C-alpha cells in the first residue's frame, strides 16, 4: 500500500462565497464524509493547512495583485476582479493556508515521507492568472507548487495534468512560454464552456511551444471520448516529456450528475483516469504525485468520487 497524504483543514471553510454560489464550504464536508465513512482516514497521513510564505506566491503572481487581493479582503469587499469571485474578509488568509498546506505536502513527498497526496483545499486555483482572479480562483495553487518544486527541490521537468471540466487558463497562461513544465488539459470545448480558452491549436509559445496540450471535448460526450483523447494525447506526450513529478488539477465537475457542464463522465471514468495517472507516476516520477482539488459541485457525488480517488492513491 502507498503512503498517501491527505490535506484537509476546516479553516478552508472560512472562505465564504455567499448564497447561490456553487463553490461552497460544504464541498469539503462532502469530501471528508466520503473518505471518513470508507474508513480510509486511519490509512492516511493527515496534513493541516499552513500559511504560505509570500515569497512563494510571488513566484507566480505579481506583488501588486497580491496586495490588492489582501486589501480588498481587509476592506470587506465581496467581489474581487470578476463577479464570479465572491469572497469575505477571511478569503486572503484562507488562500494562503491552502497554498502553504500544498507546499507542505510537496515537502513530504520530496522527503520520501509519503508517496503521494490529495489536497482538498479551497479556494481552487487553476483559473487564476498572474494578475487576475477568475472563476472562483485567487492564487494558482498548482502553478505555485510547480515553481516550488523547481526552486526549492531543483526538479527540472514538472508535468501538470488538469482534468477539471473547465480549461485551466491561468495555469496555461503562467507556463505557456516555459519548456520545463508540460501542461495538459482535457475539458469541455471552449465554444460552450467557461473560460473560452483551451483550443486544440494552443501549443504554447516561444521556448514553451509544444509544451502545452489541450484536448477539448464537445458537450454530450463522455467516457469513450475522454479515454480516446487521453490515450492519444496525454499518454504519448508524457512519455516524451517524462515528468520528474506529476501535479494534478482534480475537477470532479465533468460527472454526469454535476450541473456545471454538459460533459457526461461516469464515476468509473474518474477511477480509470486516476489509475492511468498512478501508472505514469510510477513509470516516470518514482511515484511522486500531488493531486489538488479544483472543481466538483455535486454534493451527492463528491463523497464517492473522493473516496475512490483516495483509495487509488493508496493502492487499495
Describe the structure.
- The model has no long low-confidence stretch (mean pLDDT 98).
- The strands form two sheets. Strands 2-1-5-10-9-6-7-8 form an eight-stranded parallel β-sheet, with helices on both faces. The chain has a two-stranded antiparallel ribbon with strand order 3-4.
- The protein has helices at 26-37, 54-57, 63-74, 91-111, 141-152, 169-175, 223-241, 267-284, 302-314; strands at residues 4-7, 45-47, 79-80, 82-86, 116-119, 158-162, 181-188, 212-217, 245-250, 289-293.
- Helix 4 packs across helix 5, helix 7 (223-241) runs parallel beside helix 8 (267-284) and helix 8 packs parallel to helix 9 (302-314).
- The chain has nine helices and ten strands.
- Helix content is 37%, strand content 15%.
- The protein has a single domain (4-314), classed as Arginase, Chain A, CATH 3.40.800.
- By secondary structure, it is of the alpha/beta class.
Describe the protein's topology.
Layout: E1 4-7, H1 26-37, E2 45-47, H2 54-57, H3 63-74, E3 79-80, E4 82-86, H4 91-111, E5 116-119, H5 141-152, E6 158-162, H6 169-175, E7 181-188, E8 212-217, H7 223-241, E9 245-250, H8 267-284, E10 289-293, H9 302-314
Parallel strand pairs: 1-2, 1-5, 5-10, 6-7, 6-9, 7-8, 9-10
Antiparallel strand pairs: 3-4
Helix pairs in contact: 1-9, 4-5, 7-8, 8-9
Amino acid at each position: 500500500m502507498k503512503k498517501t497524504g491527505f490535506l484537509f483543514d476546516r479553516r478552508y471553510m472560512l472562505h465564504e462565497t455567499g448564497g447561490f454560489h456553487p463553490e461552497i464550504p460544504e464541498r469539503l464536508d462532502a469530501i471528508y464524509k466520503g473518505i471518513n465513512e470508507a474508513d480510509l482516514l486511519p490509512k492516511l497521513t493527515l496534513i493541516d493547512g499552513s500559511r504560505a510564505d509570500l515569497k512563494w506566491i510571488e513566484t507566480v503572481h505579481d506583488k501588486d495583485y497580491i496586495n490588492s487581493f489582501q486589501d480588498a479582503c481587509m476592506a470587506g469587499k465581496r467581489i474581487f476582479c470578476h463577479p464570479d469571485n465572491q469572497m469575505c474578509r477571511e478569503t486572503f488568509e484562507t488562500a494562503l493556508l491552502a497554498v502553504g498546506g500544498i507546499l507542505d505536502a510537496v515537502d513530504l513527498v520530496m522527503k520520501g515521507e509519503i508517496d503521494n497526496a490529495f489536497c482538498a483545499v479551497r479556494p481552487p486555483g487553476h483559473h487564476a492568472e498572474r494578475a487576475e482572479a477568475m472563476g472562483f480562483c485567487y492564487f494558482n495553487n498548482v502553478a505555485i507548487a510547480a515553481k516550488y518544486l523547481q526552486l526549492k527541490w531543483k526538479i527540472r521537468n514538472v508535468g501538470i495534468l488538469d482534468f477539471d471540466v473547465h480549461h485551466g487558463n491561468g495555469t496555461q497562461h503562467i507556463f505557456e512560454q516555459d519548456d520545463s513544465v508540460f501542461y495538459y488539459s482535457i475539458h469541455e470545448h471552449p465554444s460552450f464552456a467557461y473560460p473560452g480558452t483551451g483550443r486544440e491549436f494552443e501549443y504554447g509559445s516561444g521556448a514553451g511551444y509544444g509544451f502545452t496540450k489541450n484536448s477539448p471535448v464537445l458537450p454530450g460526450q463522455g467516457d469513450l471520448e475522454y479515454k480516446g483523447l487521453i490515450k492519444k494525447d496525454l499518454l504519448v506526450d508524457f512519455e516524451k516529456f517524462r515528468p520528474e513529478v506529476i501535479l494534478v488539477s482534480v475537477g470532479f465537475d465533468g460527472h454526469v450528475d454535476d450541473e456545471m457542464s454538459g460533459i457526461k463522465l461516469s464515476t468509473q471514468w474518474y477511477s480509470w483516469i486516476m489509475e492511468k495517472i498512478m501508472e505514469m507516476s510510477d513509470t516516470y516520477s518514482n511515484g511522486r504525485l500531488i493531486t489538488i482539488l479544483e472543481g466538483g459541485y455535486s454534493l451527492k457525488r463528491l463523497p464517492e468520487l473522493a473516496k475512490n480517488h483516495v483509495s487509488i492513491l493508496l493502492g487499495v
